[in-house]
Specification:
Structural class: mainly alpha
Distance between the termini: 45 Å
Shape: globular
Radius of gyration: 18 Å
Oligomer: single chain
Length: 177
């Protein structure tokens, strides 16, 4: 059910995902969905958990065996590809707050952060600056990917060239710390 909801969110946009639309998609009446999820909020949270775990798998797998700029580039490209391929389910992750450290949403978020933390090991980042560096990477990669996914780059410069420029910029910045 969650996978079907995530696929539907990618298709119609997360903001347009409803229990009724999901029920129609899977061929059941809306009340039947309540056997699987506790309502719209529960569906949204479960899609967010799925998306964070999928993104963590993509980024974590991409960086294995790499360090420094190569790991940064691999992580950035994997994250961007995930957001572009799954814009609806990725949108489900924004603004979700885990109720506690043992919540599946917290664990999934930590997995994705762990993949990006592994990237930072290739740079001389002091522990006190690690959170700042993670926020920098998230802001850069999230911002670029979500703008691209929403067709936010309308001018003629090649988007892939701009993304490679962003990676090089982030690499130079991280190396200067």
């Amino acid at each position: 059910m969650i996978a079907a909801g995530a696929a539907l969110a990618d298709e119609v946009g997360f903001a347009n995902l409803t229990m009724g639309l999901l029920a129609e998609r899977v061929g059941v009446r809306t009340p039947s969905l309540y056997k699987h999820v506790g309502g719209q909020d529960d569906l949204n949270r479960r899609i967010a958990v799925l998306a964070l775990n999928e993104a963590a798998d993509a980024v974590g797998g991409a960086v294995q065996g790499y360090a420094g700029r190569d790991a940064l580039a691999a992580a950035a490209r994997a994250f961007r590809a995930f957001v572009l391929e799954h814009p609806g389910r990725y949108a489900a992750t924004i603004g979700q707050v885990p109720p506690g450290p043992d919540d599946p949403l917290a664990a999934a978020g930590q997995r994705l952060l762990g993949a990006f933390t592994a990237v930072l090991r290739g740079y001389d980042i002091e522990d006190r600056d690690a959170d700042h560096a993670l926020r920098l990477l998230r802001s850069l990669f999230h911002g670029f990917a979500t703008l691209q996914a929403s067709n936010g780059f309308q001018w003629s410069t090649d988007v892939d060239d701009s993304f490679e420029w962003l990676i090089a910029f982030a690499d130079r910045g991280l190396r200067t710390l």
